[in-house]
Amino acid sequence: MIPHILLQIVVVPAIASTIIFLTRPKIGEKAGWIAGITLIYTTALLCIVGIRVSQGEIIFEQYPLGATVNFNFLADGLSVPVALTINIICTALAFYSIHYVDHRIEAIYGEVDKRTWLMYYTRFFFLFTLFSTGFMGVSFSTNLIAMYFFMEILTIIPLYFIMAQFGYSDFISRYRVALMCLFWGVAGATFFLIGIIWGYTQIGSFEISELHNLAGNPLTFWIVLIILIGMATKLAIVPVHVWMPWVHAEHPTCIAGLLAVYANIAIYVVVRVLVLPLHDELKVFCIPIMVLALITMVYGALLALAQTDVKRLCACSTISQISYSVFGVGALTILGIEGGIFYFLSHILGKAIFFSTGGILVYVTGTRDMRKMGGLWSKMPITATLWISAALILSGIPAFSGFVGKWILFTGAFQVGISEYPVVVLIVILAVMSTILTLVYTFLRGLQIFFGPLKPGLSNDKIRDPPLTMTIPLLILAVISFILGVYPKPFLDLLHSVIGLL
Predict the structure, then answer these.
(1) Which residues pair with 73 in a beta bridge?
(2) Most CB contacts within 10 A, which of 30, 284, 310, 369?
(3) b/e map of 163-187 (b: 16 or more CB within 10 Å)?
(4) 161 neighbors 179 (Cβ within 8 angstroms)
(5) Where is 61: in which H helix or E strand?
């Protein structure tokens, strides 16, 4: 029996971050490997936790700080699949970043002396490992204040500083976009904080397990609405989506996949904090959520179709793809919620590959303009394979995980009380049809970039697949998505053990 296993999963990456920071002159180029190996360790712990939970065990660890605030952690059938998938993505992107950060330092700061290079390189991985601590804390927290704390760690520390120092564009633009990321992230978290404090005034507890006591309270509608606004801001749902194209496109590509996780994890918070304890109270929001999700699906996809910048394409795609999970959860049926969570996990796998492949194209060709790319299949076959894999996942094509997620969430959406809400049939049919847009913008751009005649300027020997440390982690994510698409039962059984209790 491994002692304090959940605490280790949350804290060990923060310890690694501290070690990298304190010993940065000595460890130097090893910082990336330390981050990657640390995350392999916590992923292994998560696999052990997953096995125990799949056998019917619920793991609960208590770390009280006071009468109302604690850092207790819960591993059950909902938190484990979410935490495991996210940590695998963190691990893959840690190894992907080893070479990519070197490229970003050179691109931004030019030829610098060894000491300056090491300062920036170790600074990136010191910040990077904090993502895992934040994500794992959100996944396992049982206390609302603790959950808020971990959400704010993600916003204030790594997102802002990595964007400001390693993002795209010039110095002023990087800091402007970093501030935009900071302000919108804090705004969403502040709405969440207002909602949970308001709830505390009614039930006298910040424990998620006590939120069911809000049922029947006349103020519950407003408390739920405030929290939903905060989470909609993080999820970039229309009309609070305006930050996503700017922030997501200008972040360094090596963490853009994690920014997709940061936005998506809000759907887990909604399910954990609102849907499970207050399911009946949310029914009044069912149709509005589904309609806003549908609008966001279509708007984000049309926005993606209009892009010529490969990073902007990926950013606009995130707006559209997140809304599928929101659509499923908004249906408030068991299948809809399970499908929404499963698609959230599928989307972040696909988006990590999609965005990272876009980053490889920028890394190799030196341009973000897809009109200047073409015929790259012959020069970059592995990169082309990764793009196609991501397109298959995001488009919901069998036998990848995206198909399973969309199938289940749309089935659940059709189960909404049609006799009570006849308009639901039309909403769901339009949502299903919107998936065609994903197919168009992913494969159309893939054809433009990788097939046809080789564009002028791309025939030199420097145009080739990047180092294996950048491609193998992404191929592993594609294989995981394929496995989940062919055999989703273990994850679905875990999700059903919690959500099925509704």
Answers:
(1) 61, 141
(2) 310
(3) bbbbbbeeeeebbbbbebbbebbbb
(4) no
(5) strand 59-61
